[in-house]
Specification:
The chain has about 160 residues and is α+β, with helices and mostly antiparallel strands. It contains 1 helix and 8 strands; from the N terminus they run αββββββββ. Strands 1, 2, 3, 4, 5, 6, 7 and 8 form an 8-stranded antiparallel beta sheet that branches.
Length: about 160
């Protein structure tokens, strides 16, 4: 007669169960805890001022407070304040032996100073938007919203 053998639990079964549980723990840990820690670290708010130059009169109505701006396909921030000024141009007048540079106001073009509230973190080397993109004074950004696209230069970060 054949004798029924019971299921025996051995060390190899134990190691397989431990490996499966460890891999599940790693997947859950990296997928949730790391993202949560990243969101906690990069939640400092900063105010970034950008200057947009040479906008036509028709374009200045496209930039408004509370607009959401994007950069590199990601959220950049929300516009808090917008200030418009006429663009200034420097022209060269013939002054005989010595050329004369004349600073004039261009009434057809405008410069815009936008104050934008952004989220990120301050590190030793500067401010990092969302923890990965470095922002510094003088950096040129290609910003866009639902209504416009422009090149802007960062003039201050606070």
């Amino acid at each position: 007669m054949s004798e029924k053998r019971g299921v025996r639990f051995n060390i190899i079964d134990f190691l397989i169960i431990v490996a499966v549980l460890a891999s599940l723990f790693v997947i859950i840990f990296r997928g949730t805890i790391i993202d949560f820690i990243g969101k906690v670290i990069y939640t400092e708010e900063a105010t970034v001022t950008v200057k947009i130059q040479n906008l036509d009169a028709e374009q200045i109505d496209m930039i408004n407070t509370d607009d959401t701006l994007y950069w590199n396909g990601e959220l950049f921030g929300t516009v808090e304040d917008v200030k418009f000024t006429n663009s200034r141009t420097v022209t060269l007048n013939d002054g005989g032996d010595y050329p004369i540079f004349v600073d004039t106001i261009d009434s057809e073009h405008f410069e815009v100073d936008c104050t934008v509230k952004v989220r990120g973190a301050f590190f030793d080397d500067g401010f990092h938007l969302s923890g990965s993109y470095y922002l510094g004074v003088g950096k040129v950004l290609e910003l866009y919203s639902d209504s416009f696209y422009c090149s802007a230069i960062i003039t201050s970060i606070a």
